[in-house]
Amino acid sequence: MTVMALALKSLKNRRVTALLTIFSIAVSVALLLGVEKIRVEAKNSFTSTVSGTDLVVGARSSSLNLLLYSVFHIGNATNNLTWETYQDLSSDPAVAWAVPIALGDSHKGYRVVGTSDAIFQHFRYGNKQLLSFVEGKPFNKLYDAVLGSTVAQELGYIIGQDVVLSHGVESRSLQNHDDKPFRVSGILAPTGTPMDRAIMISLAGIEALHIDWVNGAPPIAAFSVSAGKAEAMNLLPTSVTAYFVGLKSRIAAFRYQRKVNEFPQESLTAILPGVALGELWQLVGSAEKALLAVSVMVVIAGLMGMLTTILTSLNERRREMAILRSVGARPWHIFALMITESLVYALIGTLLGFVLMYGLLFAVQPILQSNLGLHLNITLPGQFEAVLAGIIVISATILGAIPAWRAYRNSLADGLTVRL
Amino acid sequence: MLSSHPPVIALKDIQFSWKAGTPVLDIQELIIRQGEKVFIRGPSGSGKTTLLGLLGGVLTPERGQVAVLGADLNNLSPSKRDHFRAEHIGFIFQMFNLIPYLSVIENVTLPLGFADARKYNIIQTGVEEKQEAIRLLNHLGLTDPELIKRSVTELSIGQQQRVAAARALIGKPDIIIADEPTSALDTDTREAFIKLLFEECEAAGSTLVFVSHDPTLEPLFDRSIPLHTINRMSQHWLAESSNEQETA
Prior knowledge:
Structural class of chain A: alpha+beta
CATH class of chain B: Alpha Beta
Number of helices of chain B: 10
Number of domains of chain B: 1
Mean pLDDT of chain A: 85
Number of strands of chain B: 9
Low-confidence stretches of chain B: 241-248
Structural class of chain B: alpha/beta
CATH topology of chain B: Rossmann fold
Oligomer: heterodimer
CATH superfamily of chain B: P-loop containing nucleotide triphosphate hydrolases
Largest sheet of chain A: 12 strands, mixed
Number of helices of chain A: 13
Shape of chain A: elongated
Radius of gyration of chain B: 19 Å
Largest interface: A-B, 23 and 31 residues
Mean pLDDT of chain B: 83
């Protein structure tokens, strides 16, 4: 009978503690793998909120602030930039496309993004994907609105439904633009980005909403302009909040950025979204590092549990070792027997951990997608997983050497005398 | 009658101590010849276990020579001694001889995994290991196939000792060393067990060294050696205790 077979039979004999040990290793491995998976995917999802855009331009502010309000729709713009400035800068020969956005209105807590229909041709997210429609089409009438997937799902809106937008972005005590209701013309596919929570209308639509407003105050009844009348008026926007730029060549990015930053008529800031996203991730990323550290600790605890189990079993197995010695097992056989045991724990535990993790991923994926807009890519184990599995098995073997060495010493000292 | 046979065990001027300066074993000479069934009698604490450790090559004496089957154990490396023991000596202990998680058959064939020569002895006869184990078990009175299938922990102590004897005997090792194998058995089964052991030792051509404190078993053996007659330390110990009695 080989040492391997002996070790397995011995483990089978102690299957309850063995299974518990294996399970605790499996849970810790699954936790570590899961945390790492979510960490990577969250980072990917986060940093791919906007892709294919070379620069984001807005009024002068910190790059983080500009990124937050323009891309994540968090917070407010410090200032707008005039339509003339936008026209001037977006007609630079280096610019391939420009998508302006005008923020400031909302609907039931969801931001309204006034933009041009160029957004559907040029704005990309994730792996350079364009926004796509599950239903309907882009806005082409003045009072058309396109809903992000979350908005449509949460509010249960369908194509053709009327939507009354509100002035401001606060969730309560808003002044409604109820004189000019919008109609849903299209619903976007889920993107896993803040676009899911946005309502997009044309810049002219934004202008129409505010045409009769004076200095940010709603019109007095006598001066109000009806929805129908507004359609016939000149709805050229006077300002936009920010704009996204795609350049013909990325090499021009720094030159264009400098041009924007030094624009004499207005104080502006241009940011490279990739760089700014990286900076922002460093801020929010410390939490996930803490989480990763905790799960590493859990794995260590799992391995310590294994060590405890083996060490505790040593005394009651002293007789077994002496019998093995008396039938001819060499001390190194005893050593190999013990090492094999920890290897079995580590291998099966790690394997089971992977199975658990993938099971959990498949279970959690749709929930995360619908609740957090976080898309988890379920892929085959990669280099990280392989290295991790390797480290766990190697550490278990090294830890297993401790009881193995003790058993080896015991078996030398005990010899053939079977002690109770 | 056996004095013409070659010695399988020859101890000469042996001295051994666990603690330096207080030897527990001091034997001038002990010779056991091939095919003998020797009874070594001694109360606990008389150095029995130490003697067996020396014979098995687990312990090495400070002084003297331990020759087993012509090999000088002291000159062998620890791993060679282990190997030598596995190939040539079968052990039976007082109790709890068996590995609880192995079947009866697996327990009996266990030494064969560590001793190629003993395995070869079986292969030569054209039988499988398992068949040989069953044959030995049958000879030792464990004939019930149901019994053999049972977990070893469900066997009675007498049955366990017979399984242990079969394990010691498998592959025909040259020497069987039995350390109080009958002390957990009752008087009736004791003799039966020893007789079966004798038969199997004779059939295998093995020499039997039987160690016990129980003088009632003495007459069954070819030769009996009271340990205190050969261990000078034990005489010393006896003398000392008798002195104490005198002074008391």
